[in-house]
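Sharing a chain and its predicted structure for anyone who wants a worked example. Both blocks are below, sequence first, tokens second.
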Amino acid sequence: MLTAFACAVAKAQLKPGFDKEEYAECLRMASHMDSIRVDSQYLSSKPQRFTRTYASAERGFDNEWELWEDRGSGLTAILLRATVSTNISWTANFNAGMVRAQGTCHIGKDVHYDLCPDSTALTHAGWTACLAYMQEDILHKIDSCYATGKRDFLIAGHSQGGALSFLATAMLRRAQQKGRIASDIRFKTYCSAAPKPGDYVFAMHYEHMTRGGWSFNIINADDWVPETPLSVQRVSDFRPTNPFTQIEELMSGASLSTRIKIRFLMRKLTKPTNRAVKNLTKYLGKTVGEMLKSQRVEFDTPIYENVANFVRTGQTIVLMPTEKYYIRHPHKATDAFEHHQYNAYEELIDEYNAQ
């Protein structure tokens, strides 16, 4: 028994740094998850090393996650599913209000979540709720894997699955920091075609938690999805120490006419952005949240923060299209997802050269 345990630990080979083949395998697994339901997005190439060992039940907003195992190396992969073709799955994406990255999600029962050590950090409301439905099951399975000698885990997903991979990674690393899961577990994350998961504070802490080459954000430069959700940065969204909070002191030596002009310009700059954030919070937060609640009685709408400062997160790997790529994937006004699908990413990663 001890020999088998030692071999399982010794076989694990997870290392920091972007691994093109490792990501390609994650992409194949993401494409071949159960119940993807969008046949045109499937990759013809199947996972080469990993085999599915567990698929969760659909829960929440038609979310699913799976465990895959590479028996040769001992690596285990946690895959989070992309958006599926149901109204509630898409509505979760559009629930783009911001909520605290530490809090409680009310989904029939209270689920406490912690995605960032900074209590002021904010994340996407819809995806935070999606993760809340899966959190307990993921933690339970990691405990089971650990008991059998598993120490190395890949975390991956494409599109909505990529956004959920950011949040799941943050949740697991915070659980590790607080002693909920073992400190000798290694997590490495590939967020593929992912939209922006949270605000600047969340992004900074996430990048610090995964520093040293343990998380990557892979983006096709022509894919519009990583540009979402709609974002507005206001002067009030800057870190506490900034010149905007001291504008009156900075103007103290200026003439009266100069102070009047600067105040006028500041109002012109701040009023439109404040109004835009108010509207985004109202419609993409509260209104869409009520739509979700009407479809799932076990979901209570959260408290939305009056912020819409979503930012790109993680160490980014840019897949830059080439002339060869455009022959196969021309811009099409009739297909908004031409550059977002699995096959587009697969072809670009085949051509990718880090040098």
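Comments welcome. The radius of gyration is 22 Å.
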